[in-house]
Amino acid sequence: MLLTLMNEGSLLKILKINGKKETKTFLESLGFVNGADISIVQKMDGNIIVNIKDSRVAINKDIANKIIVQEVL
Amino acid sequence: MKIALVGNPNSGKTTLFNDLTGSKQFVGNWPGVTVEKKEGQIKNYKDVTIVDLPGIYSLSPYTLEEVISREYLINEKPDLIINIIDGSNMERNLYLTTQVLELGIPTVVACNMMDVVEKNQISIDLNGLSKELGVKILPISASKVEGIDLLIEEVVKENNKPSKELDVYSKDVLDSITKIENIISKETNEFLRFKAIKLFEKDEKIMVGFDKKEILKLVDNFEEKFDDDTESVITTQRYEFITNTLKKYIKKNSKQILHTSDKIDRVVTNRFLALPIFILVMGIVYYVSVTTIGEFVTDWTNEVLFGEIIPPLVTTFLENINASPVLISLIVDGIIAGVGAVLGFVPQMLVLFTFLAILEDCGYMARIAFIMDRIFRKFGLSGKSFIPMMIGTGCSVPAIMASRTIENERDRRMTITTTSFMPCGAKLPVIALIAGALFNNSGWVSNSAYFVGIFSIIASGIILKKTKRFSGDPAPFVMELPAYHLPNIKNVFRSVYERGSSFIKRAGTVILLATIIIWFLSNFGFTEGSFGMVEDLNTSILAALGNIFAPLFAPLGWGQWKATVATVAGLVAKEAVVGTLGVLYGMAEVSEEGVEIWSQLALDFTALSAYSFLLFNLLCAPCFATMGAIKREMNNTGWTIFAISYQTIFAYTISLIFYQIGLFVTTGAFGFWTIVAIALILIYLYLLFRPEPSKKYKTNVNYN
Predict the structure, then answer these.
(1) What is the predicted ipTM?
(2) pLDDT in tens, B638-667
(3) Nearest CA among A7, A23, A20 for reference residue A69
(4) Which residue from B62, B89, B483 is facing A22, i.e. has the nearest CB?
(5) How far apart are CA B135 and CA B83, in angstroms?
(6) B668 partner at 20 to 30 Å CA-CA among B223, B248, B389, B456?
(7) Could you tell me which CATH number the domain at B2-156 has?
């Protein structure tokens, strides 16, 4: 499921990140790696604030659409 | 001894740097605020130099900051690295640490924010972690200046050794890395491990000078065998290593606590509340700094300090020492009046700077960028452009200085070019003069000025982002939002001091020179065949120059030399437009709005030409102080000339269109300039609505 489609507050795991290598690598250095826990703090018209590895990161819709996640039950 | 300071953005790196050196420096909460290299000496150790490297998340070659840091570490080979990590966010911070340790340079890790760690009831076994990583780890709290002395003691020791090799990678990966080490050891023996790992990740920048073919063959074999990209293999194994290591040494109280920052963000960045809260905060900041405290102090500085106190004192002093009248005129009428007018804004700016520094330091500024990004992206600006524009309603100089927080170069240049379109405080008297003299003091004149400012910024954004100069990928918005915390008084003070002092310094140089020139031009001239000081401004060099350039402004409706000269005087400071017009229309002294000359001005202008005059003065090249700020922030002569030319051409054409079309509509007069105006409208429409050519370049570049 795309990150943009998930709800605020849900606990998720990153399955895959699509997109250009530059963006992907930058995201990786911020902790966006496959298997990482991620949760949505706030959604604003597709722009999202997430909590990942104990820090808050704001990403816009374009980036959020490239992150594939799975809900953790 | 040379030490490099390395760490994530928002890890408190700059604060630690200040603690270690005691130097004055700007501290912000934006990721990547330290793009320039800063050096200092460690307190009480004159022979130990420390370099503050840009805040980075990794040593990969994808951002400018990473490249700068990497190249510094590899080329300059510091004797020691201090790696500052955020104790409340270990996992991500150690990602950089594992890479730093691979360099083989002796490293001391400073674990910051230990006060926050304690408060959040997290226990970290730093000794255990230190043993496992084979590197000294010292607890500190940079903002509370705790643990700094112990850290200094540790780093100045000469016996620090490189850390042992970490057990990060799987056997297959390690085999490949060793093979690459063997290949490149023919060419180099420095940073073997670090380079080998980067080469395994197909790092193009490190590849230069090595046997690219052989290395790539090895990497390709690996990727085929394990069906994975080597770069992500390395990343994953690094994070796995970190997660597994930390499990042993970190105990968190409970996993499900909602951080205070998250709670605040739920409200502050809420879909419905974000904008109202933002408008409220900005309204308060603006109201207090511009209209209440700011105006009070500024009026006092302008009217009392530089009006009633200093000039008579200086005049009396100069008269007492028998200085020549020319010198007295130069100092009192030229320098004190000119520089004083600019310095008059200092108190107001300091109040504004203080507010902004607080907003920046407590973490709200990063949220503003996030909230505004959605809207601003549509016309080629970043969410971070909003702050400069907001400040620009006070004064363009700090506004342009504030653009430094925009790390994307393209966005920053765009912001610098368009920010001074906002009507600043000094333009308000000009607006009041025109409104009073020709529009019955109507309120819509000043309202329209703000509208014109915003319209010009939006239109320019759309036009410029389609030009080649500003083309390219818009930077994707990924930004760490720092945790909210109470502003650190030291950081706020330092930031205000830095910004304020650089403004005052400029007033002492560029503006001083400019006022002397204007004074000279307006006080000297040829009368009855001889050159000398003139009593009557009409015979001054300035008037003569005004007459030469006045025809230039005829198509805008105000080709008189007086208006021309006033516009030129506006380059010193915009409020000088009013003062100059006052002098030129024969009043020795005019009030701020120039009430005395309203009737005379009304004779020389029509409503149309007056508004056109106002438009030009609002939009054209800003005052010298702002031009100086543009030059400094662009840090490039070509870009400075581009920005100022763009503003002036934009102002000229918009005023021309307004006047000529207005004239045609009201009087039916149709002539050459009407055609020019129509042509200009068509050009602007084309520039606004043509398809974005950069999209085409983008796909081309992708295939290269």
Answers:
(1) 0.93
(2) 999 999 999 999 999 999 999 999 999 999
(3) A7
(4) B62
(5) 10
(6) B456
(7) 3.40.50.300
